[in-house]
Amino acid sequence: MKAWPDWDEFVRRLREDPAFREEVRRQVLTEDLLNLPAVVQAGLAALTEQVRENSRQIAALTEALREFREAAERRFAAAEAQIAENGRRIATLTDRVEENSRQIGTLEGRVGWLMGHGFEQRFLDWAAGIFRGGGDLGPALRRTVDEARKRETIAEDDWRRLRSLDLLWGRGGTVFVGEVSEAVKRKDVFRALRAVEILGRLGWGRGLRLLPVVVGRKVGRVPKGVGWVRWDPDEEVLKISPGIEAILREEEPKPVGPERFFGGGADDAPLREA
Questions:
Q1: Helix, strand or coil for residue 183?
Q2: Do the strands 135-136 and 167-171 form a parallel or antiparallel pair, or are they unpaired?
Q3: d(CA 164, CA 233)
Q4: In this prediction, what percent of the chain has a pLDDT beyond 90?
């Protein structure tokens, strides 16, 4: 049996003799263990490359996310700007619609006033024929109002009501005090009644009959004591209330003289029923 070599000699040869050292390794280590450093190195290399690839992918995803966020922010900003612009446009359109509605309302009011005023003027042009005589007392009324204002014996609302009166027609012993409108409404009846009351307080027409009257193409129900005329020149329609018809039959068709309107007080001009 071969004796075991000297240990120190073994260590020396292992340290100094590469061939000896390699032979010892092959004898002591298995093939897998011998190949382990290469396997580990290859694994480390692969892992390093995978880490690098993951880093590249993470960087790419981060960049894509940043670009997406910036694009989204730009889209949101553009959407907010568009919404704000739409809001301004809607507000502008709303203002225009309101302005157009106001203008339309104004135009409708003007058209209505012109149509009403035209109807009123046409009736006054035909009044002498409709009432079968008589005359317009507008000038006498203006004189009365002016004198009452100078003497401060008439309230502002009263003289404005009289100045806006549509019809003041005198025939025989009757003064027709009225409102003329395409379609007679309750306010027209009220205005005529109030004008009669004011004229009575001013002492208008000693002994005269002051008759409230409403005139229109359309005339609804009228209170007792108020005369009415339904007149449509286009349709050739003329209907007069029985009270006015009786007056036109009984009284002379002469106009009321201007002297009848001045010089009396309220007690001197009692109202008589129509």
A1: strand
A2: antiparallel
A3: 24
A4: 39
Q: Burial level of 124, CB count in 10 A (0-12/13-18/19+)?
A: middle
Q: Which residues is 210 bridged to in the sheet?
A: 175
For residue 141, the one-letter residue type is L
Strands 237-240 and 209-216: unpaired
Sheet holding 135-136, edge to edge: 135-136, 167-171, 174-180, 209-216, 227-232, 237-240
Q: Write the pLDDT tens digit of every residue in 30-53.
A: 666 666 677 677 777 777 888 888
Stated pTM of the model? 0.55
pLDDT at 260: 66
Q: How many CA atoms lie within 13 A of 235 on its CB side?
A: 9
- Is the pLDDT at 131 greater than 90? The verdict is yes
